[in-house]
Amino acid sequence: MSGTFVGMPVFPTAAREALGNAQLRHNLAHATGTIRGKRSRLVEEVTDSITGDSGWEDLRLAGAGVKEAALLGLERELLRLEETLTANGATVHWAQDAAEANRIVTGIARRHGVDEVVKVKSMVTQEIGLNEALAAEGIAAWETDLAELIVQLGDDLPSHILVPAIHRNRAEVREIFLRAMKEVGRPAPEDLTDEPAVLAAAAREHLREKFLRAKVGVSGANFAVAETGTLVVVESEGNGRMCLTLPEVLVSVVGIEKVVSQWEDLDPLLRLLPRSSTGERMNPYTSTWSGVTPGDGPQEVHVVLLDNGRTNALADRTGRQALRCIRCSACLNVCPVYERTGGHAYGSVYPGPIGAILNPLLKGIGTDEQVDSLPYASSLCGACFEACPVRIDIPSVLVDQRAQVVDARRGHGVKSLGSGHAAEAIAFKGAAVALSDARKLGFGERFTRVGLGAARRLGSLPVLSKWAGARDLPPAPPESFRSWWERTDGGRSEGEGR
Amino acid sequence: MRVALMVTCINDALYPGTGQAVVRLLRRLGVKVDFPAAQTCCAQPMVNTGYLDEAVPVVRTFVDAFSGYDAIVTPSGSCAGSARHQHGLVARRSGDPGLERAVAEVSPRVYELSEFLVDVLGVTDVGAYFPHTVTYHPTCHSLRMLGVGDRPRLLLESVRGLTLLDLPGADQCCGFGGTFAVKNADTSVAMGTDKVRHVQETGAEVLVAGDNSCLTHIGGLMSRQRAGVRTVHLAEILASTEGAVLGVPTTAGARR
Ligand code: SF4
Questions:
Q1: What are the pLDDT digits (tens) for A242-269?
Q2: C-alpha–C-alpha distance, residues A274 and A310, integer Å
Q3: Distance separating alpha carbons of residues A327 and A351, to the nearest angstrom
Q4: 3-state secondary structure of A235
Q5: Considering only CB atoms, which chain B residues are within 8 Å of A434?
Q6: How many angstroms separate the CA atoms of A275 and A12, rounded?
Q7: Contact A380 B58 (CB under 8 A)
């Protein structure tokens, strides 16, 4: 029902369209501003119990540490996870890519003869396009997270990791519910208002019959503990718990980077995550399950361990730290670019700063122009790194990936990826020559004034017209600093100051 | 102490007044300052756009020009950040151990102006006079890459005659971001427009920052929008004494 991101335009093009949507910008500025405020209050509150200083940095280091340790021993931890899960009565599957994972999940659903499944909100199943794959087999996948339901009923795309419908306001939600609920189940009440509580109640009624009917539940996992064979889902609404406990069969698709070594590792992560994501001290529901418990909950449990580009990401020295991501969305909420463009412009279920580096890591650089445009979708202001609870240095990864984009083009020839890149490459080569020798620079600078004047008149230079579309250029100075220094002997022959 | 001025390519070509201000200011404080003529650029435009090979000769020029100095002072948080945090990366990429050693030697000695004044010289009152209402934009690289913290504010608060007004959303990026400003021009302008609105909300006459590149972007928008606020680099305020008139009036009809 909801769409896919296939065929999205490059970031600048998608961004331009989004920027033209005043309602979207208003919704986003309001929503991200609110979450930012809540987050920073709760981050400040974390104090060191001994020194009384801020303990947030220590907590970040601890969180980054446990994820990093698990990634370093990934193979070992995954094998251990397989062992403990199996011992707990779960069936473990390994999936190399999206197609394989989708085949496994649809196969399980088909074996049970169902034509519908209920779903806990899950990034990874969106990444692999599971809903579409199930639909192709005649199986409907019902999203049960409120925001995800809004996206699905609106035939829309998610635009935020935590709040996929962040781009919608409540009037729009009301309209979507009235229009679409009746087509797929219990209709919305006719007197539906746009009060959040009323909207939530309508969603609850609509979802209830699906929860009670469904035989198969599908989830992701926020964490997977190798030591105990435990999967963990954190959520705010309780719908997740319904999906995890009511159906007879549970299938969890888990990215291999979700594994942590031991139970204690959850401690820093479960403190970092809610503060960073929803601005809460603790998330309302934390569900953990370890395989099958006779007579309680699903009696058939499957876990699909998914790679889909993750081992490639692990091989990227600078980029691998992105696999520490706990999908809290703090980086989205502080990102000035995301705040203006919204999530759709990134062309992926992973938008914002983490999306800008994760998509190139998972999909590879140098083959797709949309993917290659993402590392440039940042002003490198560094707010994302500052906010990230597991200290992913997103700006450094962005710069490294830009170098990979440029290098890929050096190898592949620039033609296939657009002529703009060829012009840019030539310009930077020229700049490198001029800037590696001050004499050449000084010579060029004599023409600065002339150059600037001419540029203003020309304006048609692609780079300049992009600058000058909304911004004036500064007036050209009469002489460069360099020639002032020479002419006045470093200002000494000019008298005291101005 | 041997002190070098790293003027930066943008200041050299477009804002010579900023470099001159640093020279006047440091002399007033009794610092003898050199301008190594071999210097060009910090290589940041190349590094941040992904042209690391092209950055190698530029970084080499940088270390050749500045090695042997005890301190290298620059009126740009962004370029100081580039020298301190990116030159090592470029040097490693070059595969030239000599360049790596030279970078390791030079880059920790690069100071952004406010760091040099407060940390190295130990002054916050530089004896300046600037009788205007001013609001301060902490540029992202000063704020996050270097962590200059409240040093610029301490310096500004000690300027006689100056009234410092709080800028709402001060820590939000102005949208310049080097080549981001043209590669993602629409987003850049949207970010800058919000910054301009916040500047206007303060009612200040002057917007000050420690980076002329950000000021070129914000000032270029303010000029086009006839916002009636001028931009002045921190160095020029700190250098100013009684009677000085500073800054680029942003409605100066630069659009011919
Ligand atoms: S990159 Fe960091 S801030 Fe962004 S979603 Fe992941 S964990 Fe959160």
A1: 999 999 999 999 999 999 999 999 999 9
A2: 25
A3: 11
A4: strand
A5: 40
A6: 32
A7: no
